[in-house]
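Dear Dr. H.,

I hope your travels went smoothly. While you were away I took the liberty of generating a structure for the chain from your last submission, since the lab meeting agenda had it listed for discussion. I wanted you to have the full record in hand beforehand rather than looking at slides cold. The sequence, exactly as received, is reproduced here:
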Amino acid sequence: MEELHKPVLLSEVIATLNPKKNESYLDLTAGYAGHASKILAVTQNYKDSVLVDRDENAVKYLTKNLSGEVSIIHDDFYNATQHLFECGKTFDMILADFGVSSPQLDNSERGFSFLKPGPLDMRMDESQKLTASDIVNKWHPREIEKILIEYGEESVGMAKKHAREIVEGRPWSDTLELANAIAFGKHVSKSKGTKWHGKHPATQVFQAIRIAVNDELGIIERTLPNLPKLLNPGGRVAIITFHSLEDRLVKRYFKDNSSLGEESEFELITKSPIVAEKLELVINPRARSAKLRVARKRN
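The corresponding predicted structure, in token form, is as follows:
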């Protein structure tokens, strides 16, 4: 199988989930099967495993490469967990990797990257209506300020500044043009090779817009309580996050649940998040912000 996406923390996921032959597996963000292919190679249990993704391109890839061996669901992970619970499904392992995949980032037509010109899209599910263009071209300045503060973790002052830049520069149609305007002023050409030092000034703005477009935090919040319902006793769940907002939700959920005494459903396998080692960061720089947390359902 051709590897289109290099999975982060792969060896750590394998070590902490500790898959065994015949165990069932649910991947809530299967993408291009980076983690799934390695886990299924160990379990050899395709018929009792399910792969989920909201991106149609990923689903097409999974269907082409794994069709007939494993069930594939095209939906967001909250809807998928609801459906699987209603069907009475349970699993020995669950994995959720909340990051944007390399094919999404590298394809400028998807509009996720601020390093290349492309349409202001950012939809993980291209069938949904809301796009990044709707936000930057139609939303009220105060709505934009709000997501920049909440989802981009910008200061109030920077959020107001960026919101004003976005509104005054309308209409926007190109990702690189917007990124350059945020970084260097609205009159910078989208084709100009402007340089910057350190983190790109548009990083947090694009993060905020992407989260808003895809309701990423809302879906995570709604999904977390469904996880113990889908695990067999002794089953393990591993979650990979890529920024503090996601990690905070997962950390709080695991901590609150595991501290309920006899009523707790989880015990923590990782007391602190696992991060990538130096060797992986050289091979796969996108792993630099990844954090892995793992818990086991009590018997």
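Two observations you may find useful: The two ends are 36 Å apart (CA to CA). The mean pLDDT is 92.

With kind regards,
E. W.
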